[in-house]
Amino acid sequence: MNNFFIKSRKIMPKLFKKVLWGNRERWGLIPNEQDSHWKEWQNYSTEFYMENQRSGIGAVVNDAGYTVMQKIDLSGKKVLELGAGDIRHIKHWKGVPSEYILADISESMMQLAKKRLDEKSVEYRTLIIKRHQHLAIDEESIDVIISFYSLEHLYPLMPKLEEYYKLLSPGGILIGAVPAEGGMAWGFGRMLTSRRWLKKNTSIDPDKIICWEHPNFSDHIIEKLDNVFQRENVTSWPFPFCPLIDINLIFKFLYLKPVK
After folding, report:
1. Under a CB-based contact definition with an 8 Å cutoff, are residues 68 and 251 in contact?
2. Which run of H or of E encompasses 253?
3. Burial class (CB in 10 A: 0-12, 13-18, 19+), 148
4. Distance CA 244, CA 184 (A)
5. What angle do CA 239, 245, 249 make, to 5 degrees?
6. Is 182 helix (H, G, I), strand (E, B) or coil?
7. Is the peptide bond before 156 cis (omega within 30 degrees of 0)?
8. What angle do CA 247, 234, 90 make, to 5 degrees?
9. Can you tell me whether residue 13 is helix, strand or coil?
10. Looking at the DSSP assignment, which residues form a beta bridge with residue 170?
11. Which of 111-115, 200-204, 214-218 has the lowest mean pLDDT?
């Protein structure tokens, strides 16, 4: 694992660090909800998502993570998805779940997810939650937890992972992907795309919002997942045979809750 992540950010000058991964020393990792830039971000976040993650290179990168769904069968499973977005991974499903629970902080994104599930005739229920709210779900009642591009947003992360562990039934699966946040390729890619979009379309300081929206680096996420769950598979994209954080854009994962 020590060789899995070789981190250029450790030796990067501070001036470059803040452009690539946010000015973390100044702004910290917890959003100031009274901050004007944060409030503006709440108004633009859905538009930002659709402009940057659902078209162009952003869509290609996100779609690369969704292929991990081919590794499992959802037939008859009770599924919980965290931050579902528009459930773009549905095209990779094997089988149909018996129940689908959608948990999201965004009502507008929830509507997109509901539309996808209606098209597939999947039974579902929705939970609109706040960023740090506990999920009103019985322990050991979930067969599969799906988390695409959400764990990088949750801070502190460990309490949430421990909560997800409790929700899973023995033998249950946690599956999904995270961006290679904290790596050179991801930082440069954002500098050339979504950072420019924020500068062009808003008055938001991206060096501030990056810290608050992506407080967790991908190497830290994988390390914490390894501490809570049983690892089955972690792969990188676009270079699966060279899983270094600085040259990849996505890390896909599949973890288990062991049967005692």
Report:
1. no
2. strand 250-256
3. buried
4. 10
5. 60
6. coil
7. yes
8. 100
9. coil
10. none
11. 111-115
CA distances from 55 to 44, 52, 194 (A): 16, 6, 12
d(CA 201, CA 78): 40
Token look-up 């009642």 returns: 141
* Block residue for tokens 């990779």: 92
β-strand partners of 101: 80, 125
Calpha distance 230→70 (Å, rounded): 19
* DSSP result, 198-212: HHHH----HHHHHHH
Residue with tokens 């390894």: 226
CB-facing half-sphere around the CA of 211: CA atoms within 13 A: 20
- Alpha carbon distance 220, 211 (integer Å): 15
> Could you read off the pLDDT of 240-258 as tens digits, one per residue?
999 999 999 999 999 999 9
Of the candidates 194, 202, 196, the one whose C-alpha atom is nearest the C-alpha of residue 52 is: 194
